[in-house]
Specification:
- This protein has 203 residues and is of the alpha/beta class.
- The chain has one domain: Alpha-Beta Barrel (TIM Barrel).
- It contains six helices and ten strands, in the order E-H-E-H-E-E-E-H-E-H-E-H-E-E-H-E.
- The chain has a five-stranded mixed sheet.
- One zinc ion (ZN) binds next to loops.
Length: 203
C-alpha cells in the first residue's frame, strides 16, 4: 500500500498552498491508498476526516499532527486527540503516544540546527524522517546513519505543502492499513519499503 505519512493542507496549516480536496485528488491520481494528514499544531476532528473521506472512497484518510516543540517537529500519526496540543515537552508527547499506540516520527531532523537535539539527550521517537521535500540528500543520509546507530526506524514522506510535492518520497507497506493505529506496528516491525528505493552504488 502506497502511503503518505506527512501532509499539510490549507485547512489548518497557514503555510500550505493546496486545499484538502486538491491534495486528496492528486494522491488518488498518483496511486496512493492511504494518507495521514499532519497539520502544524492542529488536528482534524474525526467528523472532518470522515466528511473528506466520503469524497475520496479509494483513499484511507487518517489523522495526525506535526507538533512544534522548541526546534523539534514531532509527528504523531493516527490521532484526532487535541490534548496533544497542550503538551510542551517532547518526553510528554512520546509517553502519551506510546501509551495510545500512535506512531511518533521526528520530522526532518537535520533541516536546521537543533532539529535532532532531543536524540542527544536520550529521547527516542519511533522513527526519523529521511527523504522529504524539506530534507536535502546529505540530511537524509545523516538521518539514516543516526537512525541505524540508535536502532530507530526510518521513513520517507513528502512533507507536502502543495500538490507538486506529492509522489516523490513515500513508504510502501506489504499489508493494508485498515485502522489509523496500524501504522505503528507496521513501521516498528519493519514491514514496509522506502520509496523510491536508493539507487544502487555506482561501480
Ligand atoms: Zn516540519
Ligand atoms: Zn510538515
Amino acid at each position: 500500500m502506497k502511503i503518505e505519512l506527512h501532509l499539510h493542507t490549507t485547512r489548518y496549516s497557514p503555510c500550505a498552498r493546496a486545499t484538502p480536496e486538491q491534495m486528496m485528488q492528486r494522491l488518488v491520481a498518483a496511486g496512493y491508498e492511504a494518507v495521514y494528514i499532519t497539520e502544524h499544531d492542529a488536528v482534524w476532528r474525526a467528523d472532518e476526516l470522515a466528511e473528506l473521506g466520503e469524497k475520496f472512497p479509494s483513499l484511507r484518510i487518517f489523522g495526525g499532527v506535526e507538533l512544534t516543540i522548541g526546534a523539534h517537529h514531532l509527528l504523531v500519526l493516527g490521532t484526532s486527540d487535541p490534548t496533544y496540543l497542550d503538551l510542551h515537552e517532547e518526553s510528554a508527547v512520546l509517553d502519551k503516544a506510546r501509551a495510545a499506540g500512535h506512531l511518533t516520527i521526528l520530522a526532518h531532523p537535520f533541516r536546521w540546527d537543533g532539529g535532532a537535539g532531543m536524540l542527544e539527550i536520550g529521547m527516542r521517537p519511533d522513527a526519523l524522517e529521511a527523504r522529504t521535500n524539506n530534507h536535502d540528500e546529505p540530511a537524509a543520509q545523516r538521518a539514516r546513519r543516526v537512525a541505524s546507530e540508535l536502532g530507530l526506524k526510518v521513513v520517507n514522506s513528502s512533507d507536502a505543502h502543495d500538490v507538486d510535492a506529492l509522489d516523490k518520497f513515500w513508504v510502501e507497506t506489504a499489508a493494508p492499513i485498515t485502522a489509523a493505529e496500524d501504522i505503528r506496528d507496521v513501521i516498528l516491525n519493519g514491514a514496509y519499503e522506502l520509496q523510491p528505493q536508493p539507487a544502487a552504488p555506482k561501480q
